[in-house]
Amino acid sequence: MESHDIAIADVEAPASPDEFDVDPPYEAADADLPDERFLDRELSWIAFNARVLELARDEAIPLLERARFLAIFASNLDEFFMVRIAGLKRRIAAGVAVPSASGLSPRDVLASSLAASQELMVEHAEAFHAEVLPALADEGIHLLHWSALSSSERDAISQQYRERIFPVLTPLAVDPAHPFPYISGLSLNLALLMRNPDTGKDHFARVKVPPIINRWMEAEPGRFVPIEEVIAAHLDLLFPGMEVIAKHVFRVTRNEDLEVEEDDAENLLKALEQELLRRKFGPPVRLEVEESIDPGVLELLVSELGIKEAEIVRLRGPLDLRSLNEIADLDRPKLQFDPFVPGTHTHLAEVETSSPADLFSALRKRDVLVHHPYDSFATSVQRFIEQAAADPRVLAIKQTLYRTSGDSPIIDALVDAARAGKQVLVIVEIKARFDEQANIRWARKLERAGCHVVYGLVGLKTHCKLSLVVRDEPDGLRRYAHLGTGNYNPKTARLYEDFGLLTSDPDIANDLSDLFNNLSGFAKRFSYRKLMVAPQGLRDGLIERIDREISNHRAGLPSGIRIKSNSIVDETVIDKLYEASRAGVNVDLVVRGICTLRPGVAGLSENIRVRSILGRFLEHSRVYWFAGAGQPEAWIGSADLMHRNLDRRVEVLVRIPSAEHIAQLGDLLETSASDDTKSWHLSADGIWNLHDGIDLQTTLTDQARSRRSRS
């Protein structure tokens, strides 16, 4: 492997390796297992983003959606550098040399991750220029350079520039009186080399492209130019009398993960706010520049930012293709996915009249398993919370919040409930990565309304998705619950695939009451009737059920394991799945992102299939299904098979009570893993290969439309 000079001296070492979100040292229970049985986590993530790039290159996908996948790829990679690459650098700086489960040292992982990700970034730029850009032009959507505009278009853009952009800009010169400016993470910047014609001296200056203004300026309908080129064309207004020698766009990515010492913080909210301020000044981990950058300008940037050669990415511009979301949002329906409006779930629609369904009446009759976005979030989960807030018979609402939307009706309903005198407990996870500031705002809004707000447990993130409603009914108190795989976020519920169980099952309600008492007080209950809860019992509960399937298979009884997860990394669970495969149990894994398990290895995992489905909706649900000797059981919840989920978060899986729903989940997972379904198949060497077939998401949207037309 090519060696790289990695910049680590500028990284402050943290107090504990746990802060890195890294894999702890692992010793297998079975010493006979091969050492090379795990794929590398970081390279597996890069392979996931490569699958996203394949969607952008797929000509069968509507063109503007392909542009959106280019934007998603860019956003994904930004976070990878801000968190994972930054974390690896911090590990090395702290002297953590323990190899990962794949056997690679932190330095080797960092070097291979940088090389692989940079190669993928070059492919990303090439896909934009060679494939998507010409296709857009064929459809009358032209993304142009300033030089390609007509004189009348330049005049129109210049007028917009003077009125809307120029007043916002702040030119920053570098000289003995003006130190090199701070470059904020992910900002787009112009690096300028200018000459004073009177003195003949050269000067460096920087202009930040304002992020609050749309990146693509429309000269005429369908003809767009990037704002940085407009700024560059009008530098005489910013630097009158100066001669422009060179002008180049660049972008810096910084370490933006948080390090909050919860045990030492008297007030977690204040400690987090202080850390959010420090986040802005995290050390740089990547410098993106245009291929044509002047060597002298690049040398200055490298020197001032402390960037090493391995962290420089030279790309064909434009940089930061996240802005393609603006193009993808254009009003061109024929170039986008067909509109899809989810309908009300069948079991809720049947009790709808001219007014919204009475969810409490519906849930007294049966459990409802909703599947978003195919079932409406607004008429199920959101309505559940809103009805609870408005119902005079409801005495209390208890809720967890991890991520929610900016104009959240869930927050508004909880505020209304508190103001109406109901007891409202909200567990707000203010450490939700990159949503910390928003969650602090919601926490304070809820507190002002009279809600009891708790920030979770020290040392753990509260990631579970739970809601419990206590209602006074003629036959006594009854509790209703929602347990889901996704966040209480109406916006992402239209884009993310998730499951949610709405129920009045007494055992589940009792379990949730105990769990909320654990989260808000000093209760220490760790055993539950129909829940598996991390960090105390979730991993052990899953291993116990895998062991049962092994025993069932050996006894000649029906056996099988089907798991759907965002990521599968935990070595203990993976080794148990290897054991199941060696015993002859068939294992199907449907994984959107990272998978470090090697399937199809003779004598180890030949009975394990790993599939990945990507598409219009982000596959987000977590489902665990076990054949159970002919009496299958299924669990849904918030937990992926990762160390952070099983050891450092409060996660919940709920056992599905209804045989009908268990069969529904089992069938979906069977279809997802089928060779007849379009998906990527993981091979033992870590390569994902796309296999054509039936598009599962299209099938489910068609079925949802059909149900809606019949209702």
UniProtKB/TrEMBL annotation:
Enzyme Commission number: 2.7.4.1
Binding site for Mg(2+): R403, R433
Enzyme's top EC category: transferase
Domain Polyphosphate kinase N-terminal: 38-143
Modification comment: An intermediate of this reaction is the autophosphorylated ppk in which a phosphate is covalently linked to a histidine residue through a N-P bond.
Molecular function terms from GO: polyphosphate kinase activity
Domain of life: Bacteria
Required cofactor names: Mg(2+)
Keyword Lipid biosynthesis (UniProt): no
Residue ranges occupied by any Polyphosphate kinase C-terminal domain in the UniProt entry: 359-524, 531-690
Residues involved in ATP binding: N76, Y496, R592, H620
Keyword annotations from UniProtKB, A to Z: ATP-binding, Kinase, Magnesium, Metal-binding, Nucleotide-binding, Phosphoprotein, Transferase
Reactions the enzyme catalyzes: [phosphate](n) + ATP = [phosphate](n+1) + ADP
Record-annotated Polyphosphate kinase middle domain positions: 153-326
Entry-linked PANTHER family: POLYPHOSPHATE KINASE (PTHR30218:SF0)
Protein name, entry field: Polyphosphate kinase
Organism: Aeromicrobium panaciterrae
